[in-house]
Amino acid sequence: MDHKKLYIPGPTEVRKEIIEAMNEPMFGHRMEKMTDLYTTIVEDTKEFLDTDKHVIILTASGTEFMESSILNLVDNKVLCSTCGSFSERQANVAERLGKDVDRLEYEWGKAVKPEDVREALEKDDYDAFTCVMNETSTGVRNPLEEIGKVLEDYPDTFFIVDAISALGGDYIDLEDSNIDVIYTSVQKAFAMPPGLAVCVVDDDAYQHEKKKDSSSWYGGFQRSIDYYKRKGQTHSTPAVSLMLAYRKQMKNMLEEGHKQRDKRHKDMAEYTRDWAYEHFDMFPEEGYMSQTVSTIENTQGLNMAETIKEVNEKYDLAFANGYGSKLKEKTFRIGHMGEHRVEDIKELTDAIEDVAGL
Q: Is residue 244 located within the same domain as residue 312?
C-alpha cells in the first residue's frame, strides 16, 4: 500500500515497530497478562510525565475526557476560554450537558491572557475553568503555567486542560501548574495509533467526584481509579492491541526523556517558523506559538487545496489546509509532532517550495 508521510496535526507518523507490537495473539482483558500490561502503561506514563497524580487510559477519543471532566467536576457553572475551534468545542460540550457556561472569548489567533482570567474569576463563582493548551486550529499555545498561578488564588475552581495536540511534545510541569485535570489523545505527540485517551487527575478532582450524586459512567474518575486500585485494569473492555502498541512506544518515550522530547519539538517549531517568515507569515500572535503545529498565513495567495494535493501526489507527503470555514485557504498547517525531526520537516518545506515555485 502507498504511504503518505503525515505532517497533519494528527494522526501523526507511527513507527513500524509500534504497529508490529499490536500483532500479538489476543488475550482476555481480565487475565493477569492484562493486569501486567495496563499497570505497566499507567506507571510508565506517570514516570514519563513525572507525576504522582492519577493516570487513566481508556479506549476513546480525547473528547471523552473533555465531556467527562465537565460532568465530573461542574455542578452548576463553568468558565470556558475560547480562542479557536477546539476550545469552542469545550464550551459547546458543557452547554449540551446543561451547564451554565460563560465564555472568555478571544479572536482566533490570539492567546488566553492570565490577567483576563483573573478578572473573569473575580466577577463570579465558577466550579471550573477550561482552557486548551494547544489550539490546533490556530496554532496558539496558551500560557498555562501563568494561568495556573492565577488559579491558585481560586481554590474552589477546578482547572481543566485540553492538551490533546500538545502533551508529550511540549513540556509542562504537572506538579507545579495547579492543573486538576489534563487529557490528551495518543495519535498526536505520543505518536501512537488512534484510539486511546489519557487523563491525569489530581486527588482534589477525584475526591470531588466521589461526593457527587451523578457523574460520567464511562469516563468517571472514581470508577476508573478505584477499579485500577482494586484490579490493575480498566473497568470496561479496552483495545488490548492498542495498549500493546502504547507499552512499546512509551518505552521509547521514556528512553528519549520528556525534556529531550520537548527540545526536539521546540527545534522543529523554530525551523518551521523561520521558514514561514521567509515565505509567508505566522498566523498566531507573537509569543504564543505552538510547539507541535504551525498555522501559517497564506500571504502568497496560493490555492492551498491544489498545493496540498500536488505535494501529496508528487512527494507522498501530507500536510493540512486551514481549519474550518474561518481559516481554510487563508492558512495552512504543518504538524511537527511525534517522531519527526527537523530533517523531516525540511523534506516537507522543500517539497512545498518546489510545488509552489517559492
A: no
Query: pTM for the full model?
Result: 0.97
Q: Where are the alpha helices (DSSP H) in the chain?
A: 16-20, 32-49, 63-73, 85-96, 114-123, 144-151, 203-210, 221-231, 240-256, 258-279, 304-315, 324-327, 342-356
CATH number at residue 106: 3.40.640.10
Same domain assignment for residues 64 and 148:
yes
Ordered per-residue pLDDT tens for the chain, 358 residues:
689 999 999 999 999 999 999 999 999 999 999 999 999 999 999 999 999 999 999 999 999 999 999 999 999 999 999 999 999 999 999 999 999 999 999 999 999 999 999 999 999 999 999 999 999 999 999 999 999 999 999 999 999 999 999 999 999 999 999 999 999 999 999 999 999 999 999 999 999 999 998 899 999 999 999 999 999 999 999 999 999 999 999 999 999 999 999 999 999 999 999 999 999 999 999 999 999 999 999 999 999 999 999 999 999 999 999 998 999 999 999 999 999 999 999 999 999 999 999 9
Closest C-alpha among 79, 70, 145, 142 to residue 108? 142
Which residue, 104, 76, 107, is CA-closest to 90? 104
| Same domain (yes/no): 240, 266 | no
Do 90 and 130 form a contact (C-beta atoms < 8 A)? Answer: yes
**Which residues span the domain enclosing 165?**
16-255
Q: Verify that 35 and 142 share a domain, yes or no.
A: yes
Same domain, yes or no: 196 and 304:
no
